[in-house]
Amino acid sequence: MSEQVLIDPETRPVLGESRARVLEVLRAAGEPVGVQDVADQVGLHSNTARFHLDGLVDAGLAERQVEERSQPGRPRTVYLATATDVPAGQRSYRLLAEMLTGLVADTLPDPGKAAETAGEAWGRYLADRPAPSQRVDAAEGVRRLSAVLTDAGFAPDQVEDADRPVIPLRHCPFREVAEQHRDVVCSLHLGLMRGVLQEVRAPLRADRLEPFVEPSLCLAHLAPVKGHAARTGGRRGR
Fold first, then answer.
1. Edge-to-edge strand order for the sheet containing 217-224?
2. Do 84 and 56 have their domain in common?
3. Inter-CA distances, 85 with 8, 57, 81, 101, Å
4. In this predicted model, what pLDDT tens digit does every residue of 108-117 receive, in sequence order?
5. Residue 198, C-beta contacts closer than 8 angstroms, at least 6 positions apart
């Protein structure tokens, strides 16, 4: 592997910690890299690594390719850092995010519910489902949810009350859009948390999201699931 290339310090907060680390891996490799290879180096679930890789492609910082194979079998999708110094991040797509969010808010009969449903699907996709034999208690559920929220850029803080967990979220990756379309964006985030907790079979549900209690603080209120029993079965199709 070639010598590691450090990215501009100003790019890291724009991209978010996890996505910046994924970009560093691509730039250090100097050649196309597979999803699992990136996930192993950065310490992320493969689905989360793919999410960040695709985000880098959308931002113009990486290219997606199909690996050439000389042996039988399905070729891998691999990623390669592009030779560009153009900064990327939420500012590059803010206008697009505002346009799409406005479209949802203006055209759907219940935009909040639609956003929540979409968020649940993404939460289930990004969560790492435990083995069927593994029991997930409330503390483990909070830990797994916090890990997904960290990777998504929410900067979750520690939970103080284990009986009635409240996760402080110190950063909203979509704050500017949320301030204009709070119902859609906050419902999406609430749904994402519900999807994660369902996927990891936690005895908790995301009860409500209290946005902007301070300029840089939202509170995710969790509640016990009544009559919870560990669920097993196949994962939803990806």
1. 166-169, 217-224, 204-214
2. yes
3. 9, 14, 11, 29
4. 999 999 999 9
5. 120, 123, 124, 205
